[in-house]
TrEMBL record:
The keyword NAD appears for this protein: yes
Binding site for Zn(2+): 130, 133, 151, 154
Gene: cobB
InterPro entries, per database record: DHS-like_NAD/FAD-binding_dom, NAD-dep_sirtuin_deacylases, Sirtuin, Sirtuin_cat_small_dom_sf, Sirtuin_class_U, Ssirtuin_cat_dom
Species this protein is from: Blautia liquoris
Protein name: NAD-dependent protein deacetylase
Described purpose of this protein according to its UniProt entry: NAD-dependent protein deacetylase which modulates the activities of several enzymes which are inactive in their acetylated form.
Recorded family membership: Belongs to the sirtuin family. Class U subfamily.
Length: 242
């Protein structure tokens, strides 16, 4: 058997599966990734600042107007729909095989596909709150505006519930992700370059022999995988889950 056939057999016969994924999971939904040749970080941002800096805490505080312009133009995809990868994972969860999705994505497409136990490692671009009084705001209210959102209660700056560069991962989210990965019998990793830490470090918490890695390109952590499948993750996950 090749790696694909072995992975399919393992998934069919197994349970307690955890999926850990990144931006590549959502590219088939029309949302660009970050580090590929056509990704956000390799596009002209129309600014003197790098995309990484514009998504940092420092930049957000110093230039909230530029930050929100970038957010609305590059990270907001209201028409995006779950693709076959999201649907396949929701199907595995419904069948009682998949116990958790740990995602680096902030788009909410796993939940839109029907997945219930989704651990959003880097937060969500669909939630906002005031930095002073913590009042919550809807994504629609923020994205449909062209101004920097301010709280209508205290006037504080409203921010998205995403982890910006220079900010730590929420410790509760971090712990949930560690527990999910360490307790998994089967770990499927896909659509991620595995170069962003601490997310990539989650692989260190899996010590079993059923790590399935699905990616378009080689990653620095291919050596840790037991089975490697190269190609379109939306198509591969659909075939693995069927």
């Amino acid at each position: 058997m090749n790696d694909f056939e072995m992975a399919k057999k393992i998934i069919q016969e197994g349970s307690n599966i955890v999926f850990f994924g990144g931006a590549g999971v959502s590219t088939a939904s029309g949302i660009p990734d970050f580090r590929s040749a056509t990704g956000l970080y390799n596009r002209k941002a129309g600014s003197d600042y790098s995309p990484e800096y514009m998504l940092s805490h420092t930049f957000f505080i110093k230039h909230p107007d530029y930050f929100y312009d970038y957010l609305r133009n590059n990270l907001y995809y209201p028409k995006a729909q779950p693709n076959d990868a999201h649907q396949a994972l929701a199907k595995l969860e419904k069948e009682g095989k998949l116990t958790a999705v740990v995602t680096q994505n902030i788009d909410g497409l796993h939940q839109a596909a029907g997945s219930k136990n989704v651990i959003e490692f880097h937060g969500s671009s669909n939630r906002f709150h005031c930095m002073q009084c913590k009042k919550e705001y809807s994504a629609e209210l923020v994205y449909q505006s062209t101004d920097v959102p301010r709280c209508d209660v205290c006037g504080g700056l409203v921010r998205p519930d995403i982890v910006l560069y220079e900010e730590p991962i929420d410790p509760n989210v971090y712990q949930r992700a560690i527990e999910a990965v360490s307790n998994a019998d089967i770990l499927i990793v896909g659509g991620t370059s595995l170069v962003v830490y601490p997310a990539a470090g989650l692989l260190a918490y899996y010590d079993k022999k059923k790590l399935i890695l699905i990616n378009q390109e080689t990653t620095v952590n291919d050596h840790a995988a037991n089975y490697i499948i190269k190609g379109d993750i939306s198509q591969i996950l659909k075939e693995l889950a069927d």
